[in-house]
Amino acid sequence: MPGNIHEVLVDLFRSRPELVAELLRGLAAPSVPRHDSVRTEDPDSVEIAPVPRRADLVVVFEEDGGAVLAVIVEPQLARDDRKRRSWPNYVTALGARHECAALLLVVALDADVARWASRPIATGHPGFDLVPIVLGPPAVPWVADRDLAARSPETAVLSALAHGNEPGGLEVVEIALEAAARLEPDRAIVYADAVLLALEREVREAFESMLTAKDYEFKSDFARKYIAEGRAEGRAEGRAEGRAEGQVEGQAQAKAESVLAILRARGFSVSHEDLARIRACRDLAILDSWIARAVTARSVSEALSSEEPKGPAA
């Protein structure tokens, strides 16, 4: 099973190769031809003589037993100019092998990496410049629908990896973990690990605080395990900070940051006055009530009020 975000991205497409066709339809890419089957194959097939630097995944679309389109899928987490120089070779070798059109799909969940990958690659031959097809964050579907996530957990996990740190992304993360829980346990654990690993620390703490405030329990052992580990880590950090500055002081600061993280993750702009008020509060009960209200409040002022929390607007 994959053990890091790059390998998880490869595994998402390996597990559901039809995802390639679904994503290409939303990009400025040639249309996917009619086909009756989709399969993956050994990435070494893109080299006439395999070399250490090989493609990550090859997806082949077939009709009546013959290839009609071959797609090289390359998750790219960072810039790598040496890899870019190998991409034209991948495309030409794969097209020659299958005697059909061949495309390069680069999956880049970082906007800067996506822009880098999108640049044309000059081969030196007149009229032969390769322009990679790049799936950047804006092109990744925003999966906040539980039915859609249940039909395609791979799409939901990809969405969480791309959008989890954006305003409103906590809902996408929650839905992705629910969908992943329906997969076989080993794969579910790895996907959950990758999603939580991809979250910035502040967002991950906000996610854990949101689940606590909602008294939410995932219905799977793997999710409970990961959330429990996150909470235990937070408690350990709180104890260390408490020894240095006082336990109550450390807890108050942590809860204040959770309030801010939830509000920001939901897309609210926090004024300087409200920021100062939240961070100055040392009443743990008040901070707990703010955390609970921040999950469903329709404004910052409502989250910081003393009234009972309101449900989401109809």
Write up what this structure looks like.
The protein is an alpha/beta fold and 314 residues long. It contains 14 helices and 7 strands. It folds into 3 domains: 135 residues, no CATH class; 60 residues; 112 residues, no CATH class. The strands form 2 sheets. Strands 1-2-3-4-7 form a 5-stranded mixed β-sheet, sandwiched between helices. The chain has a two-stranded antiparallel ribbon with strand order 5-6. Helix 6 packs antiparallel against helix 7, helix 11 runs antiparallel to helix 12 and helix 11 runs parallel beside helix 13. The two termini are 42 Å apart. The C terminus is likely disordered.
Distance between the termini: 42 Å
Radius of gyration equals 23 Å
The parts where pLDDT drops under 50 for at least 5 residues are 47-52, 308-314
Beta content: 5-15%
Oligomer: single chain
Instruction: Tell me the series of helices and strands, N- to C-terminal.
Output: HHEEEHEHEEEHHHHHHHHHH
How many helices does DSSP assign?
Answer: 14
Global morphology: elongated
- Helix proportion range: 40-55%
Please identify the structural class as seen in this structure. alpha/beta
Number of strands: 7
As laid out across the biggest beta sheet, the strand order is: 1-2-3-4-7
Strand count, sense and barrel status of the largest sheet are: 5 strands, mixed
Nearest-integer average pLDDT: 82
Number of individual domains: 3
Task: Give the secondary structure arrangement, pairings included.
Elements: H1 5-15, H2 18-24, E1 37-41, E2 57-63, E3 66-75, H3 81-98, E4 101-107, H4 111-118, E5 121-122, E6 129-130, E7 133-135, H5 146-151, H6 153-163, H7 169-180, H8 185-198, H9 201-213, H10 221-245, H11 247-265, H12 272-280, H13 284-296, H14 300-303
Parallel strand pairs: 3-4, 4-7
Antiparallel strand pairs: 1-2, 2-3, 5-6
Helix pairs in contact: 1-6, 6-7, 7-8, 9-11, 9-13, 10-11, 11-12, 11-13
